[in-house]
């Protein structure tokens, strides 16, 4: 039995150490390793040397297996052909300088890939004939003739896998065909993730890129909209969270709420259901602090997450809360310098919500506006037998009134203060206390209504005053 692999003190026909350096083996510590056609177990011994948890070798020659067992007793060896592969799966499988001996070379490659673990890799060292044709080429060797593939043929055989040419293997004397090293793995479905904030162009990129490549696009906004409309079944907690203050114009808030409540996993599962069996692209904003969890969940589901990252062209959008705050401040800044395009209508209605009296000062708060949302120019306040006109009062935002009245803005609130000597409490306001709005149009404005608590307090103060007078 000729010596093939080379060991210290036992040189063989193979430049085994040099070949090892060309295989580009992955990390082996703690992993499982299988060498198909292991000869005397050189590569199995190397795997155990690096800390492989399980190192297995098979070879049809019982003599080689006997030597391998003596050299590396902590490895597992079997005298059998590749028609009887050991139970897997294996993280790394090596088939070196042996594929050309198989009757059906493509079938052997497929069987070995099936024996890989989820993240496993088949390290294939083989001769490749240089040709542009897709064919098996019969090559005469020293003692026999064997078929070797061309690269176009290999591409067809490996079309369903993820694979990479790692480079040439060592060239040995007598080799009729140059040897090469390939790494082959199961092809994972790709999940192309476009998770940028709103207005980054995610949908435009998705529409222009993925349909042309036959990749389905999952619109996260559409999924949420269908759930909100009851057109797509979803877990109860997800439906409830989406339904809270849902607005198609503020989906970023709904999305943030979902992820903050730990409902991201439910949402990812719905994307996967929508995606179908192949690759897909996700068009949906995901908060930065939750993107890592999304990638991990997709990877666990068998996808290869591919994150697309880019800068938004042009100026960045202001946060919505900042826009709202700045808009209100801007609106308020114009309250003290109004320009009237037309007279304020006299049909001003309003409320007096609260009145406080302290040390000769009467302060009133409420709201007043006509049907177009225009406030009075002045306020007419009757206290006792005297009417006081307030030309300068503080204007305030009242979004509650805007919603209730359907007004175009919320700047309809007022806060007015009068200095009146001799007034010490509500009882001093008199039974005729009332407030009206004064516009620059014609006609009288109705008296403002008093809020119920205020009306009750004024009545009680008036009764107390009459009782004391008696």
Task: Give a brief description.
This protein has helices spanning 16-22, 42-49, 62-71, 105-114, 151-157, 202-209, 220-228, 236-243, 251-260, 264-275, 291-300, 320-333, 399-405, 452-469, and strands at residues 32-36, 54-59, 76-79, 90-96, 116-127, 136-140, 145-149, 161-168, 179-186, 189-194, 216-219, 280-283, 303-307, 349-358, 361-369, 378-383, 386-390, 394-397, 411-419, 434-438, 449-450.
Task: Throw out a few tags for this protein.
alpha/beta; Rossmann fold; Immunoglobulin-like; 7-stranded mixed sheet; 5-stranded mixed sheet; 21 strands
What share of the residues does DSSP label as strand, in percent?
25-35%
Average pLDDT score = 89
Number of helices: 14
Output the CATH class name of the largest domain. Answer: Alpha Beta
Using DSSP, what is the number of strands?
Answer: 21
Give the CATH H-level superfamily of the largest domain. Answer: Vaccinia Virus protein VP39
Taking the alpha carbons of the first and last residues, their distance comes to 134 Å
Q: Which structural category do the helix and sheet elements fall into?
A: alpha/beta
Physical arrangement of strands within the biggest beta sheet:
3-2-1-4-5-9-8
Q: Shape, please?
A: rod-shaped
Describe the largest sheet.
7 strands, mixed
Determine Rg (CA atoms, Å).
41 Å
Name the CATH architecture of the largest domain. 3-Layer(aba) Sandwich
Share of helix, binned: 25-40%
Number of domains: 3
CATH topology-level name of the largest domain: Rossmann fold
Poorly predicted tracts of residues? none
């Amino acid at each position: 039995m000729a010596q093939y692999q080379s060991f210290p003190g036992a040189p063989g026909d193979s430049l085994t150490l040099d070949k090892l350096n060309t295989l580009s083996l992955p990390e082996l510590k703690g992993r499982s390793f299988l060498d198909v056609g292991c000869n005397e177990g050189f590569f199995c011994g190397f795997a155990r040397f690096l800390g492989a948890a399980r190192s297995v070798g098979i070879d049809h020659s019982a003599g080689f297996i006997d030597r391998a067992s003596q050299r590396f007793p902590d490895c597992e060896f079997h005298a059998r052909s590749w028609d009887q592969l050991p139970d897997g799966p294996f993280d790394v499988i090596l088939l070196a300088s042996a594929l050309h001996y198989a009757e059906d070379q493509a079938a052997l490659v497929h069987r070995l890939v099936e024996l890989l673990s989820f993240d496993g890799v088949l390290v294939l060292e083989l001769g490749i004939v240089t040709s542009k044709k897709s064919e098996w080429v019969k090559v005469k060797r020293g003692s026999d003739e064997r078929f070797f593939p061309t690269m176009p043929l290999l591409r067809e055989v490996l079309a369903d896998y993820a694979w990479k040419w790692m480079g040439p293997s060592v060239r040995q004397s007598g080799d009729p065909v140059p040897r090469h090293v390939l790494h082959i793995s199961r092809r994972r479905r790709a999940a192309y993730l476009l998770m940028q904030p709103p207005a980054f162009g995610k949908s435009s990129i998705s529409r222009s890129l993925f349909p042309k490549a036959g990749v389905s696009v999952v619109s996260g906004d559409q999924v949420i909209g269908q759930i909100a409309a009851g057109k797509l079944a979803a877990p109860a907690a997800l439906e409830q969270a989406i339904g809270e203050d849902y607005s198609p114009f503020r989906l970023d808030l709904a999305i943030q709420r979902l992820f903050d409540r730990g409902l991201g996993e439910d949402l990812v599962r719905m994307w996967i259901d929508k995606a179908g069996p192949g690759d897909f692209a996700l068009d949906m904003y995901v908060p930065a602090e939750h993107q890592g969890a999304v990638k991990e969940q997709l990877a666990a589901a068998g996808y290869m997450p591919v994150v697309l990252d880019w800068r938004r062209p042009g100026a960045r959008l202001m946060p919505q809360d900042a826009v709202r705050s700045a808009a209100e401040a801007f609106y308020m800044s114009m309250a003290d310098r109004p320009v009237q395009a037309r007279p304020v209508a006299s049909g001003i209605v309003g409320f007096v919500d609260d009145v406080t009296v302290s040390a000769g000062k009467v302060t009133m708060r409420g709201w007043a506006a006509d049907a177009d949302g225009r406030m009075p120019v002045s306020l007419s306040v009757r206290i006792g037998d005297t009417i006081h006109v307030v030309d300068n009062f503080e204007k305030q935002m009242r979004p509650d009134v805007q919603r209730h009245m359907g007004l175009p803005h919320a700047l309809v609130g007022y806060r007015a203060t009068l200095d009146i000597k001799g007034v010490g409490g509500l009882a001093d306001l008199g039974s005729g206390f009332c407030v009206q709005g004064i516009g620059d149009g014609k006609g009288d404005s109705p008296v403002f209504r008093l809020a119920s608590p205020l009306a009750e307090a004024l009545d009680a103060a008036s009764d107390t005053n009459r009782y004391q007078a008696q």
